[in-house]
């Protein structure tokens, strides 16, 4: 898998563009800047946007080629991001928590998906926010990107189950038009979630 993404990201162009994902952009701009975790961040488009808007960003990805392009983009835009090479299920920086986590088109096989989702949201501070967009199984009929393996695609029931420890604020499954570089372009079917980690209940 690492070799697959290194090969993709070794292209000169940014294959998913340099502008942020629109759902991510709109939701992030509603929040007060703080610390942000971006798993599977790839070429850095969302990380750089967040840093330009005052967020302290930690990006994760297994691709060294993706990291190179992300740091190059950050340098070009005059911002700083931290970027670790890590598998998502192995990331375990003890004591580190975040005000927000964004999972933008992070598609995981079913045998690890729920475990990784719960592992990552465990790094949210109480009151912190999750921003998620992913392709649904309806995406198979489209040519606008995403996995071609049905088991890697999601639906609203999967998302509801994996993130049932969070408070859902905005949750939709719909058709959108993507314009995110050459590999995400055209009509797409996605599930979108904006959710908050509850504060602990005070015991009297």
Automatic annotation (TrEMBL):
Pfam families (alphabetical): Methyltransf_25 (PF13649)
Database matches in InterPro entries: Methyltransf_25, SAM-dependent_MTases_sf
Domain spans labelled Methyltransferase: 42-128
Protein name: Methyltransferase domain-containing protein
